[in-house]
Amino acid sequence: MRRTLLLATFFCLAALTAGNAPAAPAGIEWKEKYYNPKPQPNDLVLPLPCGGAMAFRPITIESTDWLDDVKVELGGTDENVAYKEDRRDAYVAGTFTDAKDKTRRTYYLGKYEVTHLQAAALVGDCLKPSTREALPEVGVSWFNAVESGRAYTEWLLKNAPDAVPREGQLAGYLRLPTEDEWEFAARGGLAVDNAAFRGRVFPMPDGNLAQYAWFQGSGSAGGRLRPAGLLKGNPLGLHDILGNASEMVFEPFHLNKRGRLHGQVGGFISKGGDIHTSDTQMRSSMRDEHSFFDDRTGKANHLSTMGFRLAISAPAVVSAKRLTQIQKAWEQLPAPDSADQTADDQRAAIAAVANVAKSVEDKTLRDQLDAARLGFERVSAERNEVRNRAVKALVRTGAIFANKVKTDEVRLSAVEKAKERADALRDKIRARLLDARTAGQADKVARMQSALDRAGGQIAKISKNLDQLREARDRSLAYYADIVVSVASDYSVQVVSPQLDALHVEFELKKIKYLIPYADLFVAHISEYRRNGKANVEAWHRALSDL
Question: Nearest 5°: phi and psi at 406?
């Protein structure tokens, strides 16, 4: 019989974390195919009991300060399930900072669904690795899945503390992912563009759904769970994120109330579909509710096609220093652009309300003034978030137009060289024509005249193409200059620079790093315009051409 985590009681887990489990091996003894069949750069591999291991993928998110997060749109557009999956805004942020690059933060998500082999190791049952044991661990309750994160964390902290990612002074811990973390990663995160992120499933450039997910039908799963990692991964390198076993997430289910989650708390959530989900139903937004308990058995609920994968996170406040940094970031949330002409007036207004509130003896009036001040600061913070997203979009657009100016210039240069070669060829033909006339070679004169006519026609086409390319280049340059002036007129470099840092991360994750120098130059031109108030378009053009 196939054993599951459901059969491993709380007492087994308690014994494991109390130190009664087999001692941690000196190294990982399992063959890589049993814990990471599709290895990739940047995989994080953590040891398990029994000489095992578990692989994780980094989910990286841009970050300009400790309270920065990324607004994303989750959910879908299917009307028949809109009550639970309607489009809604969500916010995601990473946990672990890069010591060398403070513009990115990362959380980790299991590269594969937790397998039976791994789940058994977590309760001290050292099975012999095999393909059968590499099936997803299913038939477990939500409580079992949560408990596995606790057991794994405690084992790691005791037996392999240096393997666990750390943030500040605290070690990370394992848990179920939140629904937003799961869906953000399932859709491809920052590795895909916005249109692809909103798609029904993540981009699948190398084939159809059957190459990425096990679903219902003889052409795919055929009603049977499959070993983890046989198919291709999503853009972030996550395997079986759709299909095979559905996956539990951390928080409870809420209905959707026209673009936001409803206030009532329900059961637990499973994501991603399973081997009984048809290919036409498979989607990143899929979310189903399950009761925590089974009325028929009186025990925790579990399904034969529902499993889980783990995430690695850490507390938000990891040190006294971090707390100070978070408090400073909090205070700056409603702060106006320091270069804005109305900034001083805005600060003065907030300070005046605060001072009046302190001097008022009537408690009711004082509370009302405090509420007004907090409301004003909240609105200002929301406005700043919208402003920052707009600035980031403008810098992205500026980089794209800057690249287009360069591309137009390269094409123009290539055609100009083609025209030079055509002109040179025409001159040679003309010289041969004159020589033939002088020599009285009538046949050769006819041939050279025909060749000269063809060369003239070709040069006319090239010249027309050149005119069109120069017009396109000039138009791109004008658009670029307009964007520089517009952004520089509305926003200070202090507001623009953090969004440039965020774009560096986005462009790298989307594998369009070639745009980074163009974004840098765009912001440099904004800074130049703010200093001298002049649109030096010719100099901007030369700088773009030299990239």
Answer: -65, -45
Say if residue 398 is in the same domain as residue 312.
no
CB 106 within 8 A of CB 59: yes
Residue 34 lies in a domain: yes
Q: Write the CATH number for 515.
A: 1.20.58
**Residue at a domain's end among 287, 320, 353:** 320
**DSSP string computed for 284-333:** TT-EEEE-SEETTTTEE---TTEE---EEE--S--SHHHHHHHHHHHHHT
**Phi-psi group of 9: left, alpha or beta (phi > 0 → left; psi -120 to 50 → alpha; rest → beta):** beta
Judge whether 119 and 133 are in contact, CB under 8 Å.
no
Query: What pLDDT, in 10s, does the model give residues 136-145?
Result: 999 999 999 9
Global pTM reads 0.84
Single out the residue of 150, 162, 165 nearest to residue 250, CA to CA. 150
List the domain range (segments joined by +) for residue 158. Answer: 7-320
343 belongs to a structural domain? no
- Secondary element (H or E) of residue 220: none
Res. 107: pLDDT tops 60 = yes
Domain count along the chain: 2
Contact predicate 54/164, CB 8 Å:
no
Question: Which residue type occupies 277?
Answer: T
**The Cα angle at residue 315 between residues 19 and 36, in degrees rounded to 5:** 60
CA atoms of 366 and 475, how far apart (whole Å): 58
Split at pLDDT 50, 70, 90, the class of 17 is very low
Question: Mean of the per-residue pLDDT values for the chain?
Answer: 89
In a shared domain, residues 396 and 316: no
Residues 228, 38: contact at Cβ < 8 Å? no
| 325 touches 66 (CB < 8 A) | yes
Domain-located, residue 349: no
29 and 175 fall within a common domain: yes
Strands 246-252 and 306-307 turn out to be parallel
Q: Where among 270, 292, 320 does a domain terminate?
A: 320
Cβ partners under 8 Å of residue 8, min gap 6? 119, 120, 123, 125, 144
Fill in the amino acid letter for 47: P
* 3-class secondary structure, 511: coil
Nearest CA among 64, 65, 62, 63 for reference residue 327: 65
Same structural domain for residues 224 and 149?
Answer: yes
The whole-number average pLDDT for the span 315-335 is 90
Mean pLDDT of 143-160: 97
